[in-house]
């Protein structure tokens, strides 16, 4: 893979700008909440500006190469470098992160969750941003691991301090589950280091080596460690149980960040690290990953149907949606992985938006219990319509972003990579297709119960129930626009990701694990 | 085997060994200052109280000078036929002991003065214990190891009982003393067996002798086991940890910090010396990897698992840190289980872990001391709501606890990373399985660290008492120092940890 080192100061500044903002905030006294909000918003806007510059300056002609590439020493003694770069695979995710964070800060302008303390809350959010962007630019396994873990502490505290009633259980569960995965993942990284001749953590070199020289049985084990690390984060069935708890208890902002970006760290790990570095093991694991993915789709959907709490329902829908992403990845085809990246971005926009709505509903009704809600269209029509719109996007209505995440993933399963069994994946395809029907079911049912009908007696004359406020409009508009934009013009993302996916899978292609399927070539135009 | 003694007996007359004064300068400086404090105490009695703590600080800073000049000189020195060695490794460990001692003095200053305890004697004993530790770093001979061990232990027994009107403190000291001398006896017996089997007290010669045979003799096996078990008490490895929680709880907290960090580290230094100079296979010889490796494997796996499981149930912060210390000892022992296959990597891993552990654990105890100034208690429940009235202390404690848990970017992660690195690099199934033990144990440990973190940040203060904690200057300096080291180790470990890479134990001679 080629690397381009022009303007390579950009990524470092992009990653650490939020941290710099956090340090400035640490010096401002706690009671001056307004300054904290201003600094946090300003920092995230600067980061967004840098990300926008990145989007403009990015050389789309060579989206398959790592650009803004930096490779310097960091911890010499363990052979870890400060290696960062961006290609088409990480670019959309960086843009998504940089976009979500200012929206979170706008929303926080008058929604600092109980028990207050804007300073700590906003500082933690900024540290999260550094961790998330850092994970997407890291091109060294140790650096990746550090950034991957940096997000744990702020998220833990966000749920623990600003969460709901059951926050203690939820925050500890989140922390323990993810750490369990990443501890074993670290062992796998180390094994990769010592087992390959190169003795390097450089992700580029490891992708080139692609597991050559490692016995097949060992490869399977090493992949297993990574599978646990990333699979818990995604989360895949059966490691998903932390997610509904964390989402239900987290404050709105925490849920949005969790759904929009944090879950993607896991899927990103699969396509950036696990599969390209160990293609042979990936091929052996793929049917099982596919199986867990479709179980996740059905289980998540059934879970949604059984929920009585709106936020919990959205959380379970995440399990189902990430199932589609994982199914796309499990096909090991160019087409499927492109679909997966699209699915990640679309899920970030849509589910992030759903959690924003849930937060606003909670603020107005002081409950998220579905059977107590109703008649939102009558009382707060704009809020109701937005909920309707986003639900449509979430169930995969063509023309909106959600469609391009799910449909190609299902299609990819029709024709999986060469070494994989077509029968098995076609069976998965059928199951996944049933999942989309169930998705329509639970989302429409949610809409029917909460938005339609007459307002229930207890809320009929409640003055708290007002329509969408200005800060909410500002925070939501970019997401709503994005959902439409990428729905109409999916090529915007596919054209960026496709060369990079091809590049990272080329070892896989050489090994013959992919049949050149016609779908892959047709996807470029969107 | 007995033939080995013959040259010793045959040696006629006593020749005064060459003494390299520069090499011995750190020990001599500390000895001088320790003697000075004692003399001043005798001469001035109560009037000496005011200068005892500053003088002790000065003593430690002065001891750093020859350590630094030796490091700058850069050459390896050896005396007494290789029984006393100054190399990079020993200098790093000496510097760590002196710095840890300095932090303990900072932590003690107000505690001892305000508690109206004996001060002059306290600092005198503290210095002589540290003297034992820096001697241990250079000891490459069974006898000097034993002398160093007694020199560092006996003052510590007394320090543990410093709150002498408190029953728990007496219990602490007595338990520590009884278990300590029992361990010494076991170890001494092991040493006598090793000497009997090899005819030498020099670790290098022991190595040559024990490594000769394809199958070890029963005496050598017993000797190695007894010596290792003796030090397992010192480092509070499971199942020889039983004294630790009671001693930690009853001792004055600065002394607890001292025992749990410096004294434990000294035990590790002795183990490292023994293993890497005495037992490990070198220069084509097989060594006795077949004995100490399985022994260390079992000790490490049992310590980390049992320590963590028992820590889960603790409601007292000091006891929690005691059991977490047992688990941490397990992580530090783990590289020794693969010391035969990757000696250099295993040694650096243990040394790195020791240094980082010293910073983070001392820091945690500094917070315990600070909080107890207000609450007069070390119960975990008194930490609830700390964030609402002592945000600075809360952030510091969060840094130390999650560093102990090994969460990046705090120092603990690179320590765990290096341990895992050594275990995986050995490329043996035993190493990999122990690596999985380390990984799973990190998760168990996180539960109790995070629970304390949750209480500090997310719960209400008991009785709604929000009066701030008064942190005296010296304690503040100790906190800042340890927190800075803990973070720096995690973020830019390359520059600091890198210094320990070329560490290899000089056999001497």
Describe this structure as you would to a colleague.
The complex is a heterodimer of chains A (526) and B (509). Chain A has 526 residues and is mainly alpha-helical. In chain A, 72% of the residues lie in helices and 3% in strands. Chain A contains 21 helices and 2 strands. Chain A has helices spanning 9-27, 33-57, 91-108, 118-137, 141-150, 152-162, 167-195, 203-209, 216-233, 242-249, 252-277, 279-306, 310-330, 334-365, 376-379, 381-394, 401-414, 422-451, 470-488, 491-510, 518-523, and strands at residues 67-75, 80-86. In chain A, helix 3 packs antiparallel against helix 4 and helix 7 crosses helix 10. Chain B is an all-alpha fold and 509 residues long. Chain B has a domain at 289-503. Chain B has 20 helices and 2 strands. In chain B, strands 1-2 form a two-stranded antiparallel sheet. The radius of gyration of chain B is 22 Å and the shape is globular. Chain B starts with 5 loop residues before the first helix and ends in a 12-residue tail after the last helix. The model of chain B has no long low-confidence stretch (mean pLDDT 87). At the A-B interface, strand 1, helix 5, helix 6 and helix 7 of A face helix 16, helix 17, helix 18 and helix 20 of B.
């Amino acid at each position: 893979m080629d690397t381009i080192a022009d303007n390579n100061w950009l990524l470092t500044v992009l990653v650490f700008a939020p941290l710099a903002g956090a340090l400035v905030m640490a010096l401002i006294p706690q009671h001056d909440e307004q300054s904290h909000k201003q600094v946090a918003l300003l920092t995230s806007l600067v980061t967004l500006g840098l990300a926008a510059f990145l989007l403009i300056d990015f050389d789309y002609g060579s989206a398959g190469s790592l650009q803004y590439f930096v490779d310097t020493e960091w911890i010499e003694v363990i052979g870890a470098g400060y290696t960062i770069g961006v290609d088409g695979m990480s670019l959309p995710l960086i843009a998504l992160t940089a976009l979500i964070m200012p929206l979170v800060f706008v929303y926080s302008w008058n929604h600092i969750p109980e028990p207050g303390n804007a300073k700590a809350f906003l500082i933690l959010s900024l540290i999260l941003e550094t961790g998330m962007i850092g994970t997407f630019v890291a091109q060294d396994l140790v650096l990746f691991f550090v950034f991957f873990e940096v997000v744990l502490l702020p998220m833990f505290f966000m749920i623990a301090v600003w969460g709901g009633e059951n926050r203690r259980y939820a925050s500890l569960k989140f922390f323990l589950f993810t750490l369990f995965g990443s501890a074993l993942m670290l062992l796998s990284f180390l094994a990769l280091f010592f087992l390959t001749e190169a003795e390097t953590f450089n992700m580029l070199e490891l992708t080139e080596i692609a597991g050559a020289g490692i016995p097949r049985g060992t490869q399977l084990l090493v992949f297993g460690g990574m599978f646990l690390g990333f699979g818990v984060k995604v989360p895949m069935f059966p490691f998903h149980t932390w997610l509904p708890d964390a989402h239900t208890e987290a404050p709105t902002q925490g849920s949005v960040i969790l759904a929009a970006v944090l879950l993607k760290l896991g899927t990103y790990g699969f396509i950036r690290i696990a599969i390209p570095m160990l293609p042979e093991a990936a091929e052996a694991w793929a049917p099982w990953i596919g199986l867990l993915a479709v179980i996740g789709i059905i289980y998540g959907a059934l879970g949604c149907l059984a929920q009585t709490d709106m936020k919990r329902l959205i959380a379970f829908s995440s399990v189902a949606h990430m199932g589609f992403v994982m199914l796309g990845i499990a096909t090991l085809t160019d087409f499927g992985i492109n679909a997966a990246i699209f699915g990640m971005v679309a899920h970030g926009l849509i589910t992030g938006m759903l959690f924003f709505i849930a937060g606003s509903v909670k603020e107005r009704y002081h409950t998220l219990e579905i059977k107590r809600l109703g008649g939102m269209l009558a009382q707060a029509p704009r809020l109701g319509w937005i909920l309707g719109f986003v639900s449509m996007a979430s169930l995969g209505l063509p023309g909106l972003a959600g469609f391009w995440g799910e449909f190609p993933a299902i299609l990819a399963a029709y024709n999986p990579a060469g070494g994989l069994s077509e029968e098995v994946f076609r069976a998965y395809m059928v199951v996944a297709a049933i999942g989309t029907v169930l998705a329509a079911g639970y989302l429409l049912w949610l809409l029917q119960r909460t938005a339609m009908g007459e307002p229930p007696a207890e809320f009929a004359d409640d003055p708290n129930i007002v329509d969408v406020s200005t800060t909410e409009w500002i925070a939501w508009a970019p997401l709503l626009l994005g959902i439409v934009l990428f729905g109409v013009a999916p090529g915007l993302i596919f054209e960026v990701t496709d060369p990079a996916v091809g590049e990272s899978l080329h070892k896989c292609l050489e090994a013959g694990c992919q049949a050149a399927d016609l779908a892959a070539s047709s996807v470029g135009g969107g | 085997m007995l033939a080995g003694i013959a040259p010793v007996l045959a040696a006629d007359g006593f020749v005064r060994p060459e003494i390299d004064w520069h090499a011995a300068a750190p020990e001599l400086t500390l000895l001088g200052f320790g003697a000075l404090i004692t003399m001043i105490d005798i001469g001035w009695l109560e009037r000496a109280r005011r200068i005892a703590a500053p003088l002790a600080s000065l003593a430690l800073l002065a001891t750093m000078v020859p350590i630094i000049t030796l490091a700058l000189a850069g050459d390896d020195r050896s005396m007494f036929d290789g029984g006393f060695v100054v190399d990079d490794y020993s200098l790093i460990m000496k510097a760590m002991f002196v710095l840890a001692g300095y932090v303990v003095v900072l932590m003690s200053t107000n505690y001892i003065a305000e508690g109206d305890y004996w001060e002059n004697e306290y600092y005198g004993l503290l210095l002589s214990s540290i003297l034992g530790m820096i001697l241990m770093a250079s000891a490459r001979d069974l006898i000097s190891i034993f002398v160093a061990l007694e020199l560092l232990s006996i003052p510590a027994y007394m320090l543990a009982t410093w709150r002498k009107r408190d029953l728990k403190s007496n219990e602490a000291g007595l338990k520590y003393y009884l278990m300590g001398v029992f361990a010494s006896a076991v170890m001494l017996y092991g040493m006598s067996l090793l000497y009997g089997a090899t005819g030498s007290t020099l670790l290098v010669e022991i190595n040559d002798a024990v490594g000769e045979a394809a199958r070890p003799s029963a005496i050598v096996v017993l000797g190695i086991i007894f010596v290792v078990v003796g030090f397992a008490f010192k480092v509070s490895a499971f199942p020889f940890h039983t004294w630790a929680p009671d001693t930690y709880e009853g001792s004055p907290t600065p002394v607890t910090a001292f025992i749990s960090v410096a004294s434990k580290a000294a035990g590790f230094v002795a183990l490292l010396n023994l293993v890497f100079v005495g037992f490990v296979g070198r220069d084509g010889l097989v060594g006795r990897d077949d004995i100490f490796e399985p022994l260390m494997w079992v000790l490490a796996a049992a310590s980390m698992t049992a320590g963590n499981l028992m820590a889960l149930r603790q409601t007292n912060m000091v006891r929690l840190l005691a059991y977490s210390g047992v688990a941490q000892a397990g992580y530090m022992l783990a590289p020794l289980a693969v010391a035969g296959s990757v000696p250099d990597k295993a040694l650096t891993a243990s040394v790195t872990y020791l240094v980082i552990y010293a910073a983070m654990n001392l820091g945690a105890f500094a917070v315990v001391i600070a909080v107890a100034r207000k609450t007069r208690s070390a119960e975990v429940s008194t930490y609830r709501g700390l964030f609402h009235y002592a945000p600075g202390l809360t952030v510091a404690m969060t840094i130390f606890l999650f560093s102990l848990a090994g969460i990046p970017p705090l120092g603990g992660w690179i320590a765990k990373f290096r341990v895992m690195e050594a275990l995986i690099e050995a490329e043996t199934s035993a190493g990999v399985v122990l690596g999985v033990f380390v990984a799973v144990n990190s998760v168990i440990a996180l539960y109790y660290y995070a629970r304390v973190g949750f209480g500090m940040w997310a719960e209400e203060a008991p009785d709604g008492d929000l009066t701030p904690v008064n942190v005296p200057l010296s304690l503040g300096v100790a906190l800042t120092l340890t927190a800075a080291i803990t973070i720096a180790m995690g973020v830019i470990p390359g520059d600091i940890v890198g210094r320990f890479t070329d560490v290899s134990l000089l056999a001497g001679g």
